[in-house]
Design a protein that fits this description.
single chain; 231 residues; alpha/beta; seven-stranded mixed sheet
């Protein structure tokens, strides 16, 4: 067993999953991986079985939070010291796992692959939303996260167990903000993301706007009443 488990939640990613997993297998054998098929309606699970991939096949769609927690429960049960959230659509680049691992070994609990540590955010509506979430996180935690919506995040053993044990822990900025407020050490490393090659993102403009508003409200208000339970 390797130190790092790459958790790949996949929903309707039959056109992308082979490229993503084969790249890990062929070029990054130092990392283990598991695909979480989140009740896909296409042939994602069948493609994974055909290629002999390590697969957890959920019978229904749980959404990203449920699929990722499934992966973390697996990581927790197997005793992995580190786990990373990794998109099945090919946007995340595995060459950035190594610097993230290096950073988390310095004593951080969570490390985010950030597009904006050394690069400037472009002025788009989506980035305006990212700025607002960063502002809300800084206001409530006193710390600045430059790329709060990045989905490529690495967790240490403590965080793996905590996420695996709490049903309301989604892999989202509000949970990261909540954990920071309660003492979790979070760092960012500069990374680059690729564009999706095949398929269509579920995040339309209206859904993106709704997501940004929901995250902002959750960070500013909802998290104030949340209790942290660590088993």
């Amino acid at each position: 067993m390797n130190q790092v488990l790459v958790i790949i939640p996949a929903y309707n990613e039959e056109k992308n999953i082979v490229r993503v997993v084969d790249n890990l297998i062929q070029h990054y054998p130092q990392y283990d991986y598991v695909v979480i098929n989140d009740g896909s309606k296409d042939h994602t699970a069948a493609v994974c079985r055909e290629h002999g991939y390590r697969l957890i096949d959920l019978p229904v769609n749980l959404g990203l939070a449920g699929a990722f927690q499934t992966g973390l429960k697996y990581a927790d049960r197997m005793g992995y010291p580190y786990a990373i959230q990794f998109d099945a659509d090919g946007q995340h680049r595995p060459e950035f796992i190594a610097p993230m691992l290096e950073e988390i070994k310095k004593g951080n609990d969570i490390v985010i692959a950030s597009r904006f540590v050394t690069e400037k955010k472009p002025f788009t509506m989506r980035m305006v939303g990212s700025h607002l979430i960063s502002f809300a996180m800084r206001l409530t935690t006193g710390k600045r996260i430059k790329d709060p919506t990045s989905g490529m995040r690495m967790f240490d053993r403590t965080m793996i167990h905590e996420f695996a044990s709490n049903i309301n822990y989604g892999p989202e900025p509000d949970t990261i903000s909540y954990l920071m407020k309660h003492g979790a050490k979070v760092a960012e490393v500069q990374a680059a993301m690729d564009e999706r090659i095949e398929g269509k993102s579920y995040l339309t403009f209206s859904k993106s706007l709704s997501y940004m508003l929901r995250m902002g409200i959750s960070i500013m208000l909802v998290q104030l009443f949340r209790k942290r339970s660590v088993s």
